[in-house]
Amino acid sequence: MEDKTRLGLYETMVMSRSFEEAILHDYHADKTPAWDIGAGLIPGEMHLSAGQEPVAAGVCAHLGANDAVTATHRPHHLAIAHGMDLKTLAAEIYGRETGLGRGRGGHMHLFDPSTHFSCSGIIAEGYPPALGQAFSFKHHKTGNIAVAVTGEGAANQGAFHESLNLAALWNLPVVFVVEDNDWAISVPRRGSTAVASNAARAESYGIPGERVENNSVEGVWEAAGRAVERARSGAGPSMIEVHTVRLWGHFEGDAQAYRDDMDQLSERDPIPAYADELVRDGVLTPDQIEAIAADAKAAVAEAIDFAKSSPIPSGSEASRYVFA
Q: Does the N-terminal peptide bond of residue 128 adopt cis geometry, omega within 30 degrees of 0?
């Protein structure tokens, strides 16, 4: 890989983490009582993707704005890596009129036509819309592709299997991605499925499947390069399963009593690990690390200031923009 590419992957991961650290702070601000998800600066539930940044950075590095991405209920890293505007993203999360969905959707329902990005609070339900987008791209011969992302906990859903079946049958330009963070909501794969690898499941539908271990952003980038090239060339769908890590809870407020890996999480954080690797290889310096972090925090602060200064939707217009 070129040094410029490696540096870009690192910068994308840092931007995503900086955004979510700021969201994490404000989500818990002014929540009285703490469990009241309707209180505080940010309403609703919150699912953060810290630790899973290598998936988004590695995959989206191969995509353009006219390629489609469908994400899960944990979508911020993918939205940012795919080029979503930070200001309108923040405004939607804060429930403001200037947000992507006029503040009506919240963080699990991000829809951005400018980057062909969408997500869903229902697990595995990003897969079928990606098929529709891929079908359209193929029909109109645009050369674009769709990427559909879900978690390993969603791989037993009917939508997962129906989508793999149709993608293979119709030879669609789609890349399926599974983020295996070990825990789904609270149960490891061995407690919920008889199949050890979702990459192997893909093979049963005639789709090439590849698993990337160790949450390696460069491993994801390489696997995604092969899958994206296959889709663009007309050779059909692929699947990439990434063994990643969820550093924080399934949702904010999750006590995580079910986890037995809490004392290992700091060692598995992919961002400082990748920074150390880039420093050893002479791609990054300590001064650059500080500068990249400062630039990301400044961009995030500007986006959040925009969100906080934007108007809150009027209760009298609660149904506006909701129905077609």
A: no
The label of the residue with tokens 């869903």 reads 120
Per DSSP, helices labelled H in 171-215 are 198-204
pLDDT digits 0-9 by tens, 188-217: 877 778 887 899 999 999 999 999 999 999
DSSP for 104-120, written as a single string: SS-TT---BTTTTEEE-
Neighbours of 179 (CB within 10 A): 29
Q: What is the CA radius of gyration of the chain?
A: 19
Considering all CA atoms of the chain, what is the largest pairwise distance in Å, rounded to the nearest integer?
A: 58
Write out pLDDT tens, residues 299-324. Answer: 999 999 999 999 999 888 888 887 77
Of 181, 183, 179, 203, the C-alpha closest to 192 is 183
What does the alpha-carbon distance between residue 177 and residue 154 come to, in Å, rounded to a whole number? 11
Give me the domains of the chain, ranges plus CATH numbers. Answer: 3-311 (3.40.50.970)
Q: What is the DSSP letter of 139?
A: H
Please, are residues 50 and 248 in contact by the beta-carbon 8 Å criterion? yes
Query: Tokens at residue 296, please?
Result: 């990301």
Name the pLDDT band for 35 (thresholds 50, 70, 90).
Answer: low
pTM above the 0.90 mark?
yes
Tokens for 1, please give them: 């890989």
Which stretches of 141-225 are assigned E, i.e. beta strand?
146-151, 174-180, 209-212
Look-up of token digits 């036509």: 113
Distance CA 89, CA 96 (A): 10
